[in-house]
Amino acid sequence: MPKRLENDYQTVALKAYFKSERILGVVLTSSADAKSDLKGFSSSEEVSLVIVWYAANGCYLFRGERSG
After folding, report:
1. Which residues partner with 25 through β-bridges?
2. Rounded to whole angstroms, how far apart are CA atoms 16 and 27?
């Protein structure tokens, strides 16, 4: 999780994807809580990729991919 998000307090969207790149789930959360929501997605073996966006303007923040 980028450090700049920890004190940002904006709403972000976390989109989790299957390996086939179909959306598995989406969470709207504050940037301050995004770290714990990301851990929730990463605990599922079905999640292959998570992309994080600012919810208000749709700007891309980062993506996290499961290795292996």
Report:
1. 16
2. 9
Residue 28 is which amino acid?
Answer: L
* Distance, CA of 5 to CA of 34 (rounded, Å): 8
Measure CA of the first residue to CA of the last residue in the chain; give whole Å. Answer: 20
Contact between 12 and 41 under an 8 Å Cβ cutoff? The reply is no
Write down the pTM of the prediction: 0.80
36-48 pLDDT, tens digit per residue, is 999 999 899 999 9
DSSP state of 4: G
- Contact call for residues 5 and 54 (beta carbons, < 8 A): no
Q: Which two tokens stand for residue 32?
A: 């301050």
